[in-house]
Amino acid sequence: MPELPEAETIAEGLKVKLVGKRINGVHIKRRDVLNITPQRLRPLLLRRRILSVERMGKKIILQLEGKRSLIFSLGMSGQLYTLPPEVKPPPHTHLIIEFSGLAGALIFRDPRRFGGVSLEGEGLPKTSGSSIRNLGPDILSISEEDFIALMGRKKRQLKALLLDQGLICGLGNIYTDESLFRARLHPGRRSDGLNVDDMSKLYNAIRQVLAEAISAGGSSISDYVDAQGEAGNFQVNHRVYGKEGEPCPNCGNKIAKMKIGGRGTHYCPHCQPG
DNA sequence: GGGCTCCTGGAT
DNA sequence: ATCCAGGAGCCC
User: Fold this and answer.
1) CA-CA distance, A79 to A9, in Å (whole number)?
2) Residues 74-113, chain A: which have Cβ under 7 A from strand B?
3) In the predicted model, what is the mean pLDDT of chain A?
4) Is A8 a known active-site residue?
């Protein structure tokens, strides 16, 4: 579900609640969302303090005492938020972590289970909780020059390229469509057909969209919630994503939808000519 | 590269 | 009943 702005919002919310707190309870409801056995995970977490909460691309990282970190991937439907003590964890809650000095608990739930939780350095197969090793640089930390250099080496459709987390991480289906629209580039255009000015426009469009989305607390289409369990607001500012058949905010022509790389792709045929 | 697969739930 | 969904790994 979440892309960079949602992960950023969650990470910022968790930072305030969790940094400095000590883990004093671990409840594992589904072991197959983990890349490590419950028997092994529990002692590695218990009594450890949270040193920091980071975000890398779409992943959320709890840095623990003892040079270990716990990495959450939320997939399509994952949620990571704190629940007040009187509230019963909802269905599809797979992991509950309690902290000293925190009323209630941190819960990880994920109905579709495309997400997962991994302790970095462990290697059980069959978890998409995956590591952060295969990720390219985060889109918010890369410079315009480096972005242009990276893109310039590839010869693929822009949409597919921006979704490739191994090249640059953080963008997902919503924000690629929104960024390409703002840069007025057709999602099916090939990266090797762009000039430096196009790439610069794209870089700046991406940064602008992400910054606005972070300010709005992310996009809630169906089930995204932040660290408090609250929905985001940026969906009201989407210009093309989910707007098939509606008028383009620039030109009034109808927003179209096609498939690229198996993903629904929204664009304005007039403003983003092929 | 593209296609299939993992899984649940909501809309039509 | 069928299609679709903020993701991503594995298969040619």
Assistant:
1) 12
2) 77, 91-92, 111-113
3) 95
4) no
Query: Measured between alpha carbons, how far is A194 from A200 in angstroms, rounded to an integer?
Result: 10
**Is the CB of residue A128 inside 7 Å of nucleic acid strand C?**
yes
Tell me which residue of A27, A23, A105, A118 sits closest to A70, measured CA to CA.
Answer: A118
* Averaged pLDDT, A231-245: 97
Phi, psi of A152 (to 5 degrees): -65, -20
Which is the catalytic residue, given A17, A55, A58, A182? A58
Spatial separation of the C-alpha atoms in residues A159 and A125, rounded to whole Å: 29
Q: Strand B contacts (CB < 7 A) among A residues 156-175? A: 156-157, 160
- Which residue is nearest nucleotide B7, judged by alpha carbon to C1' distance? A112
Rounded distance, CA A134 to CA A165, Å? Answer: 8
Residue-level pLDDT at A130: 58
Is the C-beta of residue A57 closer than 7 Å to nucleic acid chain C? yes
Question: Protein A127 CA to nucleic acid C11 C1', in Å?
Answer: 18
b/e string for A142-176 if b means 16 or more Cβ within 10 A? Answer: beeeebbebbeeeeebbbbbbbebebbbbbbbbbb
How far apart are the C-alpha atoms of A34 and A49, rounded to whole Å? 20
Q: Indicate whether A123 pLDDT > 90.
A: no
pTM over 0.85: yes
Torsion angles phi and psi, residue A23, rounded to 5: -75, 125
Query: Alpha-carbon distance A28 to A102, whole Å?
Result: 19
The answer to whether residue A111 is catalytic is no
Contact status, residue A33 vs residue A56, Cβ threshold 8 Å = no
CB atoms closer than 10 angstroms to residue A80: 27
